[in-house]
Amino acid sequence: MAYLTVAQVRSRVPGLANTGTYLDAELTNLVSEFTDIAERFRGVAFESRSVTSEQIVRPGRDVKLANSKVRAISAASIDAVSLTAGELAALVVDKSVGVVSNGTWYGGNILLVTYTHGFDAPPEPLLRACAEYCRSVAFSDRSGQGRDVIAQSMDGSFTRYSTPDWNRGRPTGYLEVDRLLNSVADFRVPGVA
Questions:
Q1: pTM (predicted TM-score)
Q2: How far is it, in rounded angstroms, from Cα 99 to Cα 79?
Q3: How many CB atoms lie within 10 A of CB 94?
Q4: Domain ranges of the chain
Q5: DSSP label at residue 165
């Protein structure tokens, strides 16, 4: 499910109401693009998702799943041998960061795990950021200026535009979108991109 439907984007941004100029497919793609950026930047899914992940395991070592905010592990196998319900129940999962420990790996090599992760629904600032991202990209695609101006000098005719820079907290380069994204909790593990 998308953070916002096309109808919700159009409702939040009346300037995108023209269905002939701003096609449904374009807005759907922009919502999807924003979802990917937001979740990579904050390190968590803001909607519940189920995934299957394959990882190499070492006996006695913890396994870091690809996602944080793990809700439940529904199935797992080691080298194509399914874990029993008891073995699944014995797993210790740090759900906030997605680390599985106390695994009964038995010297196996490949862990295949199916789990659910993420929040129930995105918070309002993220929905506002999504609508603003759709507006900013759609409008810039049709204008001569694609980015927000963050510095300007008239004498030397110098203009500096905001561009994406994840290390400086600007994942999109659109100032209002990035401000809203930065207002949402960060779940990234330090040192992991």
A1: 0.80
A2: 19
A3: 14
A4: 6-45+121-182, 49-117
A5: B
